[in-house]
Amino acid sequence: MTRIVAGTAGGRRLKVPPKGTRPTSERVREALFSSLESVLDLDGARVLDLYAGSGALGFEALSRGAAHATFVESDRRAAEVLKSNARDLPFPGVLVVNRSAEAYAATEGEPFDVVFADPPYAVGDDEIAGVLAGLVGAARLTADAVLIVERASRSAEPVWPEGVEPLRAKRYGDTAVYWGQVRSDG
């Protein structure tokens, strides 16, 4: 069972796609959001949840005050589960995009304050680097945007694109969470 940890929808359950996704554990989400809220005020934030799966990260952000979340998921079945979760939760600012993270990241559009990228562990480092570079190249990040990448703890730290500096890294068992932030000078 996956549920929203805190905020206005705290305790609400999320449907999870039947296979092919690995929802971020409650323990990791709780720690991640405690840290995130010390770096950034989520009230009114625009959030991008790449490789969204059930949408646990984006819905958690909405529950904690984000104004809008875009969920990007390439698997059609997972995107349908995301749409169902969006209908069941009380958040108006939700957009579900059934597209690859690489294709979405390279398109122009409104910028985001927070980006979550939680790809399947099998996704290669080069693809992650390409997605992050695409976000920067397409101007999809605000001046101080925070990027959070979740990987297997045995994976290397993501290659941050020019203009993004690493903030921190934290391991939780077999999961590692890497943080980067857009440099306000660049």
Automatic annotation (TrEMBL):
SUPFAM superfamilies associated with the record: S-adenosyl-L-methionine-dependent methyltransferases (SSF53335)
Q: Methyltransferase: is it a keyword of this entry?
A: yes
User: Where do the record's region annotations for Disordered lie?
Assistant: 1-23
- The domain of life for this entry's organism is Bacteria
Q: Which GO terms describe its biological process?
A: rRNA methylation
**What GO annotations for molecular function exist for this entry?**
methyltransferase activity; nucleic acid binding
Which keywords are on file for this protein?
Methyltransferase, Transferase
Put simply, this protein is called: 16S rRNA (Guanine966-N2)-methyltransferase
